[in-house]
Design goal:
The protein is elongated. It contains 5 helices and no strands. The chain has one domain: Ferritin. It has 171 residues and is mainly alpha-helical. The structure holds MU-OXO-diiron. MU-OXO-diiron binds next to helix 1, helix 2 and helix 3.
Amino acid sequence: MIGKKMEKALNEQINAEMYSAYIYLAMVAYFESENLPGCANWMRIQTQEETAHMMKLFDYVTERGGRVVLKAIDQPPKDWKSPLAAFEAAYEHEQFITGRINKLVDVAIQEKDHAANAFLQWFVSEQVEEETSADAIVQNLKMAEKAPGAMFMIDRELGQRTFTPPTQEGA
Ligand code: FEO
């Protein structure tokens, strides 16, 4: 049975992952309106990933005998001033989520909830990937600012991204 403090903290993270899905979905709409279908595709996959993160937490709380309580999701921004600004915002958001995951691990340690700590390690590793992939695109877009035609190439590349659902065990 999960402790009340851990249950509350995981419920808050369920909301944070839903907001992540929501902000990236807002970016899908932004990129579609900018006629950048590849960037929109990348964000579409990101939205699916965040939904999978949320469900992973949802199922874990339930499996541990806790109760999921859904809260209102904040409204995300509508526009960004450039594709670079949108990906910079995505990168900053992932850094924020990493901080939240680290705090969840702190709660698990304080509560001596070793099972939750082990479960959360998947998210610790996932956040390394999340930050790396967003930052790589930020760097490419910065270089593209000086090279005509580069945006077209980047958009085409981001259009190749596909969704791989996380497995039950992790990964
Ligand atoms: Fe669910 Fe992008 O971290």
